[in-house]
Amino acid sequence: MGAFLDKPKMEKHNAHGEGNSLRYGLSSMQGWRVEMEDAHTAVVGLPNGLNAWSFFAVYDGHAGSQVARYCCEHLLEHITSNPDFRGGGGGGGEPSVESVKSGIRTGFLQIDEHMRAISEKKHGADRSGSTAVGVLVSPRHIYFINCGDSRALLSRAGRVHFFTQDHKPSNPLEKERIQNAGGSVMIQRVNGSLAVSRALGDFDYKCVHGKGPTEQLVSPEPEVYEIERSTADEFIILACDGIWDVMANEELCDFVRSRLEVTEDLEKVCNEIVDTCLYKGSRDNMSVVLVCMPGAPKVSPEAVKKEAELDKYLESRVEEIIKKQGEDAPPDLVHVMRTLAAESIPHLPPGGELASKRSIIEAIYNRLNPYRSDDTSGVPGRARPSEASRL
Length: 391
What we know:
Layout (H helix, E strand, L loop, with lengths): L3 E16 L2 E12 L4 E7 L9 E9 L3 H16 L15 H25 L7 E9 L3 E7 L3 E6 L2 E5 L8 H9 L4 E2 L2 E2 L9 E2 L21 E6 L4 E7 L1 H4 L4 H12 L5 H14 L6 E7 L8 H25 L7 H9 L16 H11 L16 H6 L1
Antiparallel strand pairs: 1-2, 2-14, 3-4, 4-5, 5-6, 5-11, 6-12, 7-8, 7-13, 9-10, 13-14
Helix pairs in contact: 1-2, 7-9
């Protein structure tokens, strides 16, 4: 779905903040797609007496960015302002777990119906849709919210403790709902077209008469999971499928943990995630939000030293490869990467491996190779997606 550019757009949108004993950073990048359709939300301290609560979310739009953009601006309000969230009361006090879960579900259904009404008033139905994955963090609980195939996970005590389940049309319960609504699942897509079975928007798939909003071909109903917070909680990752397409849960957790041991800059960590996924072959928009809890890994002098030694080793190896090839025919960057990929290099970041060092290798290559031209093969943006995925 969607066309691709001749070279990826690697400019990034970044933000960071802290509060409520949390620190967060985020990064989003258009990549190979012709349009950026992702959006995100990061709010530390919520209104209406929920100062100690925070909300983070990633929205992965498709067939346009309108729904994703609207959700990033209004979904939180729909969740926290509906009566179900407060358990039917409008007063103070912390809402119960069941009230929060009910309010989240109601908020999703409300915003979806609201967006449909807006679209119909414009006399040209908006065909875009968006997944939504988020976390609502209270002083005692973490509420994981998922609608679609973006994903959230929690790292606790050095391992993946929890992750949301992707909503794919081929999942048995999702497929059953689709078929009950008169649809089919072909090539793992709803009616052979849409790759997710739950999403906000996508109103072309929500027109079956006699069926409620959660019984349509595509459902706007989120799955909500509540987890009690622990002092062993390290960090939460929210990301669109452009990240998860090329990084498994454990790989990304290991990579983030290793990065947190060498830098406190969460924007930098998130930028490394999206760059690494690009070099691993992701062809989608990419957005990631990293939320660090008090128990997150801290910068380690030993890890910083090993990282510096690794960068120095890579510099020496790139120089050796260029010199070995000869001045008359210096190697292109693809050759350098393939040579390094065939070697056993110690202390590469787990989960990221050589791909996570490609930008550094490129910088070293550009500095050491005086014969390079602007059209050097293999420079990011020149390599095609299929080639990038092999490196």
